[in-house]
Amino acid sequence: MKINFKHFLWLLSVLFMQIAAAQDGSISGKVTDKKGMPIPGVNIVLKGTKISTQTDFDGQFKIDAAKGQILVVSYVSYSSVEVPASNGMKIELIETQNELEAVLVVGYGTQSKKNLTDNIARVTAKDIQQIPVSNMQNALVGKLAGVQVTQTNGKVEGGINIRVRGAASISAGTQPLYVLDGIPLINDNESSNGAPTNPLLTLSTSEIESIDVLKDASSAAIYGARGANGVVLITTKKGKEGKGTFSINLSQGVSEATHKKKWLNAKQYVSLLQEAGRNVDDLESVEDELEFLSQGTDWRNGEIDTNWQDIALKTGYTTDADFSLSGGDSKTKYFFSGAYNNTVGIVDSNSLERITGRTNLSHKVSDRFTAGMNLGFSRSLIDRVQDDNSFSTPLQSVAQAPISQARLADGTANPNTEYSNYLLAKDNTFWKTIMRRLTGKIYGELKLLNSLKFNSDFSYDFLSQTEDYWQGKNAPFMATDGAVFATSVNTENYVWSNYFTYDHTFAEKHSLNIVAGMEFNKYNRRYQDVNSIYFPNDDFQTVDGGAEVNEGHGSQTDYAFVSQFGRLNYSYQGKYLFKASVRRDGSSRFGKNEKFGVFPAFSAGWVVSQEEFLKDNAVLSYLKLKGSWGKLGNAEIGNFASRQLYRPNPYNLKSGLTFDQAGNDNLTWEKSTQTDFGVELGFLNKISFEADYYQKDTDGLLFEVPVPISSGAQFINKNIGKIRSSGFEFTLNTKNIETENFRWNTSFNITTNNSEVKSLPNNGTDIITTYTINRVGENISSFYLVEYAGVDPANGDALFVKNTVNADGTLDKSTTNDYSEAKRIIAGNPFPTLMSGLTNTIFYKGIDFTFTFQGEWGASIYNSAGGYMSSAADYFDNQTADQLNRWQNPGDITDVPQARFGGTNGTQDSSRYLEKSDFVRLRNLTIGYTLPKQTVSNMGMSSLRVYLTSVNLLTFTNYKGTDPEARRDDTGIGEDFYSAPPARTIALGVNINF
C-alpha cells in the first residue's frame, strides 16, 4: 500500500504541475552549464514541497513558485544549487568533474575530490551500465589505474581475480575486500567441482550507483586488518528529492568465442600419426588404434571429419531486462529496482539465469533523526560443466581424434573415443549450482548538534548455495547405476557499526571532519554434503532415489572481529590538507598472544593552485601535491590457522582422534606498509592529470613451516617472509571538444607494477612448484622451466639449453638433446608489468559513442596442455595446426621436432610451451541514439534511447594460445589447460524513462 500511496502522490504532483503551468504566477527560466550550453533533464524542486519539474531539451523550465521562494536545482555530475526564484532567471550549474566537487565514498563517510589526500579510483553508473557482462567486476576492466581485473576463462560463472596495485601476498588471500553500502560482502568460493564460482555474480550492475576502489593505505586503513589487498566500495542507487521516475532497460545479445585454435582435420591427423608411427617403427600399432577410433568408417579417406572445437564452443545469447522506480520528497526518498539476466554461454551446456531485486528507503522522521533501510535479494541458477582438468569437460574434447564420430547414427554419444566423450556427460549428467543472496541494512542518523551526528548501522549478508551433481547410469566412469552428489552451504555475516561524525568550519578557514566509532563483525558458515548411489533408473535424480547413501560430510566454522576506528580530516583555506586515521582490529583468527593489531595511516596535501602566486593562472588551473603512509593487514589466513587441531580418525566403526596441526599462539595477520606520492594537475579547465608512485611492503607472510615428525604434525603456520610491490600510475582526462552540439572526452590510464620476493622462510630457500618458483629477488610465482632451444636440423631432436653452472660461476649455454642434462631457469612472469586503458566518449546532438581499449604487457602464459596438443603426434590426441611445420628432413629449420609416436621428443615441461601474452583489446564499444525530447514526450515518455553495445570486439595480440586472458580454473598460476576463451558479445538495447 505504501508504494501505491507514493505513486498516487506522484500522480497528484504531476497534476498540480500541469495546473500550475496554466496559472499566471509561474516562474520560468533556463539552466545552462559554465559554457552557456543548455542542460536538458535537470530536476528543479520547490524546496519543502512536492512541486517539481524538469528542463526541456533547450534547458527551459516553468514551475509554480512565487518570487523569492527557494528552488533546489540538481543534475547528475553537476553541483546542486539552491537559488531564489525570479521570472526569466538563468541558472548556471558547475560540472563536478571540472571543479573537483565530485563526492567519493571513503568508508564511514564521504569526501569531495578536491579535499582528497588519498588515492581512490571511481567509476559511476554511466561508466558500467548497459555493458553486456554477467558480473559487475568485468565492467571495470580498463577503467581504473592500478586495478587489474581478470576472469579465469569464458565460463559464465568463471572466477574473477582482481589485483589492486599488484600482489600483497603469496599464500594468504589476494582479493580485495568488497563493501556494499557498508556491508562487507561474503566472497568465498564454495564450488565443489574443481572450478571456482564468482559469489559476486549475485550483484547486478543496474542497481549500482558508483564503485570506489581504495588503493592506498591512507584510504584503506579505516578497514584495518582486511585492507591490504585494497577495498572496493559499492554504493547502490537511492531515491532523490523531486519528480518520480520510472526506467526500463531491455537488451538482447549474441556471443561467440574471441578466438579458436586451428586443429588438424582428419586427413592431416591420419598422415601425421602414420608418419610418427613410421619414425619409431611402430606403424602397425598406430593403424590398429586408428581402426578403433574410426569404428568401421573409412579413416584412410577422411569419411569422418569431426570438428570437436565447434561442438564444444557454441553461439551464446544474453538477455537483460531491468527496471527502477525512484523519487521522493523532502522527507521520504525511495528506490525500487528489479533485474533479470539470462546468459547462455559460449561453452556447451553452460548457462546462467539470475534475478535481482532491491529496495532502498530513507525517511526523515524529524529535523534531527533520519532512518532508512537497504534490502537486496538475488537468485542465480548456473548450469555448469566440469573443471578444465576433467576429461568430461567440453574443451578437452578437442583432444579427441577427428576421425571419431561425436554421435552415432541413432543420436547417442559415441562411447568409443580416445578419451571419455564429453557428450556422454552432456546427455547423462548435470551440475546445477544455485546461489541465493540476501543483503540488508537498517540505519539511523541522529543529529545531536548542528555539526555533530551519530550513526548506527546494522548490516547483514546471507549467501546460500546448493549444488546438485547427477550422473546417470551411462555417464562417464559410472559403475554404480547412477549417483547423486548434493551440497548445501549457508554463510552469514553481520556487522553492527556505531560512529560519531563531527563536521565544522571555523572562521571560514579551518575545516574539520572527525569520525570515531566501533564495529562488531560476526561470520558463520555451515556446510553439508551427501552422496547416494545405485538408482533404479535415470528418472530418479535426487539423493532419496538411491539405494545407498554411501558418504556424507558436514562442518561448521565462524570468526569474529571487534574494532575501534577513527579518522580526522583537516583543511586550512582549502589548500593545506591533512588526514590521519587509525583502526584497532581484534580477531578470533589470530593467535591468543596477537589478538589485536593497530593500523595507522597519515596523508597530507597541498593545493598549490590556491596560493596567491597561482590562484589566477589562466593555464595551470589546478595543482595539488599529496603523499600518504600507512599500515594495513591481510586477515585471510583461515579460521583456525593458529590453533592446535585434531581431526576425526575412525577405525573399524570406532571413533578416534588424530593430531593434525601444531598451534602457534603468536600467529597473526600479514602486515602491509604502504607509501604513496602523487601530483594532480589541471590545465585550462579542460585537462586533468594525475601521477602517483606507490610502494607496498608485506611482511609476516603466512607459510607452512615443516616441524619434526616426532611432533606428530607435518608443519606449523608461521609469519615468515616479505614481498614488495611498487610502480607508477598515470591518469589523463581531457575535454577535447565542447560545443553546443558536440562533446568529446578522453580518459587514459597506465600503470606499471613490479612484485618482488624480498625474503622467505628457511633462510630464503626457494619455494618450487611444478612450473613456478618463489625466489628472493625475483617476481612472485615466476615461471621456472627448462629452456627450450628448438630443433637439431640434422636429426629432428628437440634441444634444450643446459644452463648448468660452469667452474667460473657462469651458465653453460650449450644445448643438449638429453632433457635430464638441462637445468631449470626463471623464464617468465605470470603477472603483467604494464597495464593501460583508454576510453573515449563522444556526444553529437542525440548520438552518443563510447569505446574502451585495454592493454596488458609483460605477462606470460604456460600451456600445460602443450605436451598433449602440440607434441607432433606423441600420442593419439589431435594436434594444433602448427605441428604441420614439424622437422621431416635433414636441414629443415623449425621449432617443431620430428614426429615420433610415444617418443617424448620435446614434449617435456619447458619454455617451449611458455609464451608472452601481451595484448590490446577493444573491451567495450557502445553507440546510442536518444530521440528528441518533443518526440518522446508525445509518447508519454521523458526519454528514449536505443543502443548497440559490445564486449571484447577486437583483440590485437601475437599470443598463439586460446586467448591471452584464458587461464585454467582448477589450479595453477598463469596456466592455460584446455581453457575456454572469453566471449565476444554484441547486444542491442533500449532504455526508456518516464
Please give a structural write-up.
There is one protein chain. With 994 residues, the chain is mainly β. The protein has a domain of 93 residues: Sandwich (Immunoglobulin-like). The protein is 8% helix and 48% strand. The chain contains eleven helices and 55 strands. A hairpin with an 8-residue loop joins strand 27 and strand 28. The radius of gyration is 31 Å and the shape is globular. The N terminus is likely disordered.
Topology diagram in text:
Blueprint: H1 2-21, E1 26-32, E2 43-46, E3 52-54, E4 60-64, E5 70-74, E6 81-84, E7 89-92, H2 96-99, E8 103-105, E9 110-112, E10 120-124, H3 125-128, E11 147-151, E12 160-164, E13 177-180, E14 183-184, E15 208-214, H4 217-220, E16 231-236, E17 242-257, H5 266-278, H6 283-294, H7 308-312, E18 316-328, E19 332-344, E20 351-364, E21 369-384, H8 422-428, E22 429-449, E23 452-471, E24 483-506, E25 510-533, E26 548-572, E27 576-587, E28 596-607, E29 620-634, E30 645-648, E31 657-661, E32 670-683, E33 687-699, E34 702-706, E35 715-719, E36 722-738, E37 742-752, E38 754-759, H9 761-764, E39 767-768, E40 772-774, E41 782-786, E42 788-791, E43 798-801, E44 804-805, E45 811-812, E46 815-816, E47 824-828, E48 834-844, E49 847-857, E50 860-863, H10 866-869, E51 914-916, E52 919-930, H11 933-937, E53 943-957, E54 975-976, E55 983-993
Parallel strand pairs: 1-7, 13-16, 50-54
Antiparallel strand pairs: 1-4, 2-3, 2-5, 5-6, 8-9, 10-15, 11-12, 13-14, 15-16, 17-18, 17-55, 18-19, 19-20, 20-21, 21-22, 22-23, 23-24, 24-25, 25-26, 26-27, 27-28, 28-29, 29-32, 30-31, 32-33, 33-36, 34-35, 36-37, 36-38, 37-48, 39-40, 40-41, 41-47, 42-43, 43-46, 44-45, 48-49, 49-52, 50-51, 52-53, ...
Helix pairs in contact: 5-6
Keywords: Cell outer membrane, Membrane, Receptor, Signal, TonB box, Transmembrane, Transmembrane beta strand, Transport
Family: Belongs to the TonB-dependent receptor family.
Domain TonB-dependent receptor-like beta-barrel: 399-934
